[in-house]
Structures are given as C-alpha cells and as structure tokens.
Amino acid sequence: MNINYLYYFQTVCKYKNMTKAAESIHISQPSITLAIKELEKELGFELFYRIGNKIELTPEGKIFLDKSKHFIKQFEDFQCDALDLGKKRKASLKIGIPTVLGTFLLSKILPRFNVIYPDIELKIFEVPTFVGAKMIEESTLDFCIGIIDSDIYDDIDSKTIYKTELYLVTNPKNELAKHPIISNYMLKNVPFVILSEGSYHYKIITKRLEKAKPNIILHSNQLSTIRYLLENDLASTILYKEIFQNTENLCSIPLERAITANIGVLWRRNQYISHSMKLFIEYMASIHIN
C-alpha cells in the first residue's frame, strides 16, 4: 500500500472535494482521483459516496480513516525516532505545564536535563492541566506536567514525580495569620483570589470552598497580580505551598483538612514512544524535587 495514497485520502476527507484536496497539496485532480480509485481497488471496498461534486465517507471509509490516522501517526513517530537515533537532527519535545507549577518546577527540571541531553530540545508551553491533557490526546503536545487524576484523564498514562500540599497564603497582618492551622469556617466572607476557571487548581479549590463561602473577588492566573493582592492585604488565597514559601512578607498556613496533590508527567496512552520521549520519561522518574 502506497503511504502517499493515505495522505491523499486524509486530505480528500478534510476538504470533501477532490479538486480542492488536489489544489491544497499541489497535485492534479486526476492524479488524486486515480490514487483514491487505486486505494479502493486494493482495499476491496468504496471509501466515498459520490454525490455530484461532493463526496461523503462510507461506513467502511469512516473506519478506515480512523485506522489510517493512527497508522500515519505511528509512521511519523517512527521516522522521528529513527532520525533521533541517527542524530541527523536535534530531537524536539513539546511540554505543557500550568503557570503556577512552572514557577517552582521548571528550575528543578530544565537545567540538568539540558546538560544531560543537549541534543533534545524542550519546547515549553504554559497551559492548564485540563488543556494540556486534551492537547496530548490531539498529539499537539508530547507531554504535560500537571496534577494526576485517573478519574478525569481516560486515555492518559502518567508517572508521579512529586507530592505537594496546598496552603492558605495571606498577609502577616491579616487575622488569619494568627492561626497555626486554617479550618473552612474561618474563610467565610474572607476576600479571596483563586486561579481562573479551566485549571485543575480551580476545580479542587472551588469544591473545597463550596461550603466555606469566601468572598471571591478575583479569578486570575497572573501570580504577580495575586501577589499584589496578598502583599497589600486585599485578599487571601490557597496555593501550592512552594509558591510563596520563602516570601518574607507573606504567610503560608496549612489547612485543617489537608489538600494534597500528586504532580506528574502525563503522555498519551498506547502511542508510539520515541527514543527521546523514553529518555524524558526516565529522566522525570529519576529526579528528586525537594
């Protein structure tokens, strides 16, 4: 089977028109039509219903489209892996990480990795864990570093690299700073800032604060904005304890009902794992984050 025919087939599926598909990949319309006919002859079934100038996938065509996408992805992964091994090009991995985790994790991950594997380039994208997981499933990202939750991510494999806890953070002059531990009832009507909707952090915090009913005055992913509100005693928040742990003019206090989180590296289940991806997974499993 000619792999180019599979690319042609997927392009026709995208445009639902032979002429437009041919124009998009700069070949003649008769050539792409012939390729589809040859593919159908080899398979023994029709891929499309032809209705005038429009075409629609047959039931068999829909199944074959899914299988061809999977095959081409594996083939492209194999090509990348072969090139990595041959060192004909610098390998590149796309990594997603939420902004708040990146503030204290990237400095512990990147420098040593770059020294050990100078031929593997890491491209970092700031994305919430939920978004990162979706991008992994769509093959837009190779990995995401985020909160592990097997109840949410169906087609994701993961490896825990770090366990953390969320603390209340407030100004030392705030009434809450007088307490060695914070219970939910203390937070009623307290001005609060939390991360924006769409993040895993937002999900767990809003669930925990549902009965406490603080006065949420701002949703923001900008740590500089959150810090400004905290330092000026305009709001309090709940964040990973590492973020403001060593900040002199802020106070971090544990919660009576602890909120813990497993941070890990996530990747798409059942995908082809290239040589550079294997090295990254092994590296992440070996590091010790203090």
UniProtKB/TrEMBL annotation:
GO terms for molecular function: DNA binding; DNA-binding transcription factor activity. Keywords: DNA-binding, Transcription, Transcription regulation. It comes from the Bacteria. GO terms for cellular component: cytosol. InterPro entries: HTH-type_LysR_regulators (IPR050950), LysR_HTH_N (IPR000847), LysR_subst-bd (IPR005119), WH-like_DNA-bd_sf (IPR036388), WH_DNA-bd_sf (IPR036390). Gene3D superfamilies: 3.40.190.290, Winged helix-like DNA-binding domain superfamily/Winged helix DNA-binding domain. Residues 1-58 form the HTH lysR-type domain. Belongs to the LysR transcriptional regulatory family. This is Cyn operon transcriptional activator. It comes from Clostridioides difficile (Peptoclostridium difficile). The gene is cynR.
